[in-house]
Amino acid sequence: TWRTSELEFEDILYHKAEGIAKITINRPEVHNAFRPITVMEMSQALNDARYDESIGVIIFTGAGDQAFCSGGDQSIRGEAGYQGGKGVQHLNVLDLQRQIRTCPKPVVAMVAGYAIGGGHVLHVVCDLTIAADNARFGQTGPSVGSFDGGFGSSYLARMVGQKKAREIWFLCRQYSAEEALDMGLVNTVVPIQQLESETVRWCREMLQNSPLALRCLKAAMNADCDGQTGLQELAGNATMLFYMTEEAQEGRNAFMEKRPPRFSDFKRRP
Length: 270
Ligand code: 2NE
Known about the structure:
Its EC number is 4.1.3.36. By secondary structure, the chain is an alpha/beta fold. The protein has helices at about 35-50, 95-100, 120-125, 140-145, 150-160, 160-170, 175-180, 195-205, 210-225, 225-245, 245-255; strands at about 5, 10-15, 20-25, 55-60, 65-70, 80-85, 90, 105-110, 115, 130, 135-140, 175, 190.
Protein backbone atom coordinates (compact mmCIF):
# COMPACT_ATOMS: atom_id res chain seq x y z
CA THR A 1 0.00 0.00 0.00
CA TRP A 2 1.54 3.26 -1.17
CA ARG A 3 1.89 6.10 1.37
CA THR A 4 1.61 9.63 -0.03
CA SER A 5 4.67 11.69 0.82
CA GLU A 6 4.20 14.72 3.05
CA LEU A 7 5.96 16.86 0.41
CA GLU A 8 3.50 18.93 -1.63
CA PHE A 9 3.55 18.97 -5.42
CA GLU A 10 1.47 20.40 -8.25
CA ASP A 11 2.47 18.27 -11.27
CA ILE A 12 3.60 14.98 -9.76
CA LEU A 13 2.49 12.35 -7.25
CA TYR A 14 5.05 10.97 -4.82
CA HIS A 15 4.52 7.73 -2.92
CA LYS A 16 6.58 5.33 -0.84
CA ALA A 17 6.12 1.75 0.33
CA GLU A 18 8.36 -1.08 1.51
CA GLY A 19 11.67 0.43 0.40
CA ILE A 20 10.28 1.69 -2.94
CA ALA A 21 9.63 5.33 -3.91
CA LYS A 22 7.29 6.03 -6.83
CA ILE A 23 7.38 9.33 -8.73
CA THR A 24 4.40 9.82 -11.08
CA ILE A 25 4.05 12.61 -13.63
CA ASN A 26 0.43 13.67 -13.14
CA ARG A 27 -0.58 15.56 -16.29
CA PRO A 28 -2.58 12.86 -18.13
CA GLU A 29 -4.55 15.50 -20.09
CA VAL A 30 -1.36 16.19 -22.10
CA HIS A 31 -0.04 12.61 -22.07
CA ASN A 32 2.16 13.58 -19.11
CA ALA A 33 4.15 16.17 -21.02
CA PHE A 34 6.49 18.00 -18.66
CA ARG A 35 6.87 21.70 -18.04
CA PRO A 36 9.71 23.23 -16.00
CA ILE A 37 7.87 22.89 -12.69
CA THR A 38 7.14 19.21 -13.42
CA VAL A 39 10.84 18.59 -13.86
CA MET A 40 11.72 20.59 -10.75
CA GLU A 41 9.28 18.54 -8.70
CA MET A 42 10.58 15.25 -10.12
CA SER A 43 14.07 16.37 -9.22
CA GLN A 44 13.01 17.29 -5.68
CA ALA A 45 11.26 13.93 -5.18
CA LEU A 46 14.22 12.02 -6.59
CA ASN A 47 16.51 13.87 -4.22
CA ASP A 48 14.24 13.00 -1.31
CA ALA A 49 14.24 9.32 -2.33
CA ARG A 50 18.01 9.31 -2.71
CA TYR A 51 18.56 10.65 0.81
CA ASP A 52 15.82 8.54 2.45
CA GLU A 53 17.67 5.58 3.98
CA SER A 54 14.50 3.48 3.94
CA ILE A 55 14.35 3.68 0.12
CA GLY A 56 16.35 1.26 -2.03
CA VAL A 57 14.70 1.55 -5.46
CA ILE A 58 12.85 4.36 -7.28
CA ILE A 59 10.08 3.98 -9.86
CA PHE A 60 9.38 6.69 -12.46
CA THR A 61 5.98 6.54 -14.15
CA GLY A 62 3.09 8.53 -15.64
CA ALA A 63 -0.49 8.85 -14.44
CA GLY A 64 -3.12 6.80 -16.28
CA ASP A 65 -2.57 4.05 -18.81
CA GLN A 66 -2.21 6.22 -21.94
CA ALA A 67 1.24 7.69 -21.43
CA PHE A 68 4.44 7.46 -19.47
CA CYS A 69 5.51 10.87 -20.77
CA SER A 70 5.21 12.74 -24.09
CA GLY A 71 8.24 14.99 -23.55
CA GLY A 72 8.40 18.74 -23.26
CA ASP A 73 5.05 20.57 -23.18
CA GLN A 74 4.93 22.14 -26.65
CA SER A 75 2.25 24.64 -25.63
CA ILE A 76 4.72 26.52 -23.42
CA ARG A 77 7.77 26.12 -25.62
CA GLY A 78 9.39 29.51 -26.16
CA GLU A 79 12.19 30.53 -28.46
CA ALA A 80 14.90 29.12 -26.17
CA GLY A 81 13.29 26.43 -24.06
CA TYR A 82 10.18 25.66 -22.03
CA GLN A 83 8.61 28.65 -20.22
CA GLY A 84 8.64 28.43 -16.46
CA GLY A 85 7.68 30.93 -13.77
CA LYS A 86 8.82 34.53 -14.32
CA GLY A 87 9.15 33.80 -18.06
CA VAL A 88 12.43 31.91 -17.61
CA GLN A 89 12.95 29.33 -20.36
CA HIS A 90 14.35 25.94 -19.46
CA LEU A 91 15.72 22.69 -20.81
CA ASN A 92 15.97 21.52 -17.20
CA VAL A 93 15.02 17.93 -18.05
CA LEU A 94 18.66 17.51 -19.08
CA ASP A 95 19.67 18.13 -15.45
CA LEU A 96 17.11 15.55 -14.35
CA GLN A 97 18.58 13.00 -16.78
CA ARG A 98 22.01 13.43 -15.16
CA GLN A 99 20.41 13.20 -11.72
CA ILE A 100 18.78 9.87 -12.61
CA ARG A 101 22.10 8.52 -13.90
CA THR A 102 24.08 9.61 -10.85
CA CYS A 103 21.48 8.54 -8.31
CA PRO A 104 23.19 5.68 -6.45
CA LYS A 105 19.94 3.72 -6.23
CA PRO A 106 18.36 1.86 -9.16
CA VAL A 107 15.73 3.89 -11.03
CA VAL A 108 13.07 1.89 -12.89
CA ALA A 109 10.84 3.30 -15.64
CA MET A 110 7.34 1.81 -15.49
CA VAL A 111 5.88 2.54 -18.93
CA ALA A 112 2.26 2.30 -20.04
CA GLY A 113 1.32 3.99 -23.31
CA TYR A 114 3.50 6.63 -24.92
CA ALA A 115 7.15 7.19 -24.02
CA ILE A 116 7.78 9.77 -26.71
CA GLY A 117 10.27 12.58 -27.35
CA GLY A 118 11.87 13.83 -24.14
CA GLY A 119 9.67 11.26 -22.37
CA HIS A 120 11.39 8.52 -24.32
CA VAL A 121 14.78 9.82 -23.22
CA LEU A 122 13.63 9.74 -19.61
CA HIS A 123 12.98 5.99 -19.80
CA VAL A 124 16.28 5.51 -21.69
CA VAL A 125 18.28 7.02 -18.82
CA CYS A 126 16.50 4.91 -16.20
CA ASP A 127 18.37 1.74 -15.17
CA LEU A 128 15.55 -0.64 -16.12
CA THR A 129 12.31 -0.32 -18.09
CA ILE A 130 9.24 -2.43 -17.47
CA ALA A 131 6.80 -1.93 -20.34
CA ALA A 132 3.10 -2.61 -20.55
CA ASP A 133 1.90 -4.30 -23.72
CA ASN A 134 0.33 -1.00 -24.87
CA ALA A 135 3.61 0.94 -24.60
CA ARG A 136 4.73 2.97 -27.61
CA PHE A 137 8.27 4.24 -27.92
CA GLY A 138 9.85 6.83 -30.19
CA GLN A 139 11.59 10.15 -30.72
CA THR A 140 9.85 13.06 -32.42
CA GLY A 141 12.55 15.74 -32.27
CA PRO A 142 13.30 16.22 -35.97
CA SER A 143 9.55 16.38 -36.72
CA VAL A 144 8.82 19.07 -34.10
CA GLY A 145 12.04 21.08 -34.32
CA SER A 146 14.03 19.57 -31.48
CA PHE A 147 16.63 16.94 -30.69
CA ASP A 148 18.49 15.46 -27.74
CA GLY A 149 22.10 14.86 -28.76
CA GLY A 150 23.14 13.85 -25.24
CA PHE A 151 22.06 10.64 -23.51
CA GLY A 152 19.07 10.62 -25.83
CA SER A 153 21.37 9.86 -28.76
CA SER A 154 24.72 8.47 -27.68
CA TYR A 155 23.45 6.38 -24.78
CA LEU A 156 20.50 5.22 -26.88
CA ALA A 157 23.01 4.07 -29.53
CA ARG A 158 24.93 2.08 -26.89
CA MET A 159 21.64 0.43 -26.02
CA VAL A 160 20.18 -0.44 -29.43
CA GLY A 161 23.21 -0.01 -31.72
CA GLN A 162 24.16 2.80 -34.09
CA LYS A 163 21.96 1.81 -37.04
CA LYS A 164 18.82 1.46 -34.95
CA ALA A 165 19.48 4.68 -32.99
CA ARG A 166 19.86 6.59 -36.25
CA GLU A 167 16.65 5.02 -37.56
CA ILE A 168 14.79 6.01 -34.39
CA TRP A 169 15.90 9.63 -34.66
CA PHE A 170 16.03 10.15 -38.42
CA LEU A 171 12.61 8.62 -39.20
CA CYS A 172 10.71 9.50 -35.98
CA ARG A 173 8.73 6.25 -36.09
CA GLN A 174 6.88 4.72 -33.17
CA TYR A 175 7.76 1.23 -31.92
CA SER A 176 5.59 -1.27 -30.05
CA ALA A 177 6.55 -2.80 -26.71
CA GLU A 178 7.51 -6.06 -28.45
CA GLU A 179 9.72 -4.21 -30.94
CA ALA A 180 11.33 -2.34 -28.06
CA LEU A 181 12.02 -5.64 -26.30
CA ASP A 182 13.57 -7.10 -29.45
CA MET A 183 16.00 -4.17 -29.75
CA GLY A 184 17.04 -4.24 -26.07
CA LEU A 185 15.29 -0.97 -25.25
CA VAL A 186 13.21 -2.45 -22.41
CA ASN A 187 13.71 -5.30 -19.95
CA THR A 188 10.33 -6.99 -20.18
CA VAL A 189 6.79 -6.56 -21.50
CA VAL A 190 3.77 -7.43 -19.39
CA PRO A 191 -0.01 -7.15 -19.77
CA ILE A 192 -1.03 -3.68 -18.66
CA GLN A 193 -3.08 -5.02 -15.72
CA GLN A 194 0.14 -6.50 -14.28
CA LEU A 195 2.40 -3.53 -14.94
CA GLU A 196 2.65 -2.27 -11.38
CA SER A 197 2.73 -5.67 -9.67
CA GLU A 198 5.47 -6.88 -12.02
CA THR A 199 7.48 -3.68 -11.57
CA VAL A 200 7.19 -4.01 -7.80
CA ARG A 201 8.31 -7.66 -8.10
CA TRP A 202 11.47 -6.56 -9.94
CA CYS A 203 12.06 -3.85 -7.32
CA ARG A 204 11.65 -6.34 -4.46
CA GLU A 205 14.21 -8.64 -6.08
CA MET A 206 16.71 -5.78 -6.24
CA LEU A 207 15.93 -4.88 -2.62
CA GLN A 208 17.09 -8.38 -1.61
CA ASN A 209 20.56 -7.65 -2.99
CA SER A 210 23.47 -5.68 -1.53
CA PRO A 211 22.78 -1.92 -1.89
CA LEU A 212 26.51 -1.21 -2.04
CA ALA A 213 27.04 -3.78 -4.79
CA LEU A 214 24.17 -2.31 -6.85
CA ARG A 215 25.49 1.19 -6.28
CA CYS A 216 29.01 0.31 -7.41
CA LEU A 217 27.72 -1.64 -10.42
CA LYS A 218 25.59 1.31 -11.55
CA ALA A 219 28.57 3.65 -11.20
CA ALA A 220 30.83 1.20 -13.04
CA MET A 221 28.42 0.84 -15.97
CA ASN A 222 27.97 4.64 -16.06
CA ALA A 223 31.75 5.12 -16.03
CA ASP A 224 32.00 3.12 -19.24
CA CYS A 225 29.92 5.80 -21.01
CA ASP A 226 30.21 9.01 -19.01
CA GLY A 227 33.87 10.02 -19.31
CA GLN A 228 35.39 11.88 -16.38
CA THR A 229 31.96 12.41 -14.79
CA GLY A 230 31.45 8.65 -14.78
CA LEU A 231 34.91 8.06 -13.35
CA GLN A 232 34.25 10.64 -10.65
CA GLU A 233 31.10 8.79 -9.66
CA LEU A 234 32.85 5.42 -9.57
CA ALA A 235 35.82 6.87 -7.71
CA GLY A 236 33.48 8.59 -5.25
CA ASN A 237 32.26 5.16 -4.24
CA ALA A 238 35.86 4.02 -3.78
CA THR A 239 36.46 7.07 -1.56
CA MET A 240 33.35 6.30 0.49
CA LEU A 241 34.51 2.70 0.98
CA PHE A 242 38.04 3.93 1.85
CA TYR A 243 36.59 6.27 4.50
CA MET A 244 35.04 3.18 6.10
CA THR A 245 38.48 1.57 6.63
CA GLU A 246 40.72 1.90 9.71
CA GLU A 247 43.56 2.91 7.40
CA ALA A 248 41.74 6.04 6.20
CA GLN A 249 40.46 6.78 9.69
CA GLU A 250 44.05 6.66 10.97
CA GLY A 251 44.83 9.61 8.67
CA ARG A 252 41.96 11.64 10.13
CA ASN A 253 42.80 10.61 13.71
CA ALA A 254 46.48 11.52 13.34
CA PHE A 255 45.57 14.94 11.95
CA MET A 256 43.11 15.62 14.77
CA GLU A 257 45.61 14.35 17.40
CA LYS A 258 48.44 16.42 15.85
CA ARG A 259 50.74 13.39 15.43
CA PRO A 260 52.31 11.62 12.43
CA PRO A 261 49.99 8.97 10.93
CA ARG A 262 50.91 5.29 11.53
CA PHE A 263 50.10 3.97 8.05
CA SER A 264 52.84 1.32 8.51
CA ASP A 265 50.29 -0.55 10.70
CA PHE A 266 48.37 -1.38 7.52
CA LYS A 267 49.14 -4.13 5.02
CA ARG A 268 50.48 -3.35 1.57
CA ARG A 269 48.43 -5.79 -0.43
CA PRO A 270 49.70 -7.38 -3.65
C1 2NE B 1 2.24 11.23 -27.90
C2 2NE B 1 1.42 11.37 -29.16
C3 2NE B 1 2.05 10.56 -30.32
C4 2NE B 1 0.00 10.81 -28.88
O1 2NE B 1 -0.85 11.02 -29.99
P1 2NE B 1 -2.47 10.89 -29.80
O2 2NE B 1 -3.05 11.18 -31.14
O3 2NE B 1 -2.79 9.59 -29.16
O4 2NE B 1 -2.88 12.01 -28.74
P2 2NE B 1 -2.96 13.59 -28.97
O5 2NE B 1 -4.32 13.96 -29.35
O6 2NE B 1 -1.86 14.06 -29.82
O7 2NE B 1 -2.63 14.10 -27.46
C5 2NE B 1 -3.65 14.19 -26.47
C6 2NE B 1 -3.56 15.57 -25.86
O8 2NE B 1 -2.27 15.73 -25.27
C7 2NE B 1 -1.62 16.85 -25.84
C8 2NE B 1 -2.23 16.98 -27.22
O9 2NE B 1 -2.03 18.28 -27.71
C9 2NE B 1 -3.69 16.66 -26.95
O10 2NE B 1 -4.28 17.76 -26.34
P3 2NE B 1 -5.81 18.19 -26.76
O11 2NE B 1 -5.83 18.31 -28.25
O12 2NE B 1 -6.67 17.03 -26.26
O13 2NE B 1 -6.05 19.43 -26.02
N1 2NE B 1 -0.19 16.59 -25.90
C10 2NE B 1 0.41 15.44 -26.20
N2 2NE B 1 1.74 15.56 -26.16
C11 2NE B 1 1.98 16.85 -25.83
C12 2NE B 1 3.18 17.59 -25.63
N3 2NE B 1 4.40 17.04 -25.73
N4 2NE B 1 3.04 18.89 -25.30
C13 2NE B 1 1.84 19.46 -25.15
N5 2NE B 1 0.68 18.79 -25.32
C14 2NE B 1 0.76 17.50 -25.66
C15 2NE B 1 1.28 12.84 -29.61
O14 2NE B 1 0.51 13.50 -28.64
C16 2NE B 1 2.56 13.54 -29.78
O15 2NE B 1 3.25 13.35 -30.78
N6 2NE B 1 2.92 14.43 -28.84
C17 2NE B 1 4.05 15.32 -28.94
C18 2NE B 1 5.34 14.56 -28.65
C19 2NE B 1 6.51 15.51 -28.78
O16 2NE B 1 6.85 15.93 -29.88
N7 2NE B 1 7.16 15.88 -27.66
C20 2NE B 1 8.20 16.84 -27.61
C21 2NE B 1 9.52 16.29 -28.10
S1 2NE B 1 10.88 17.40 -27.88
C22 2NE B 1 11.31 17.13 -26.21
O17 2NE B 1 10.57 16.53 -25.50
C23 2NE B 1 12.59 17.66 -25.68
C24 2NE B 1 13.75 17.57 -26.39
O18 2NE B 1 13.76 17.01 -27.61
C25 2NE B 1 14.95 18.09 -25.88
C26 2NE B 1 14.95 18.66 -24.63
C27 2NE B 1 13.78 18.72 -23.91
C28 2NE B 1 12.59 18.21 -24.42
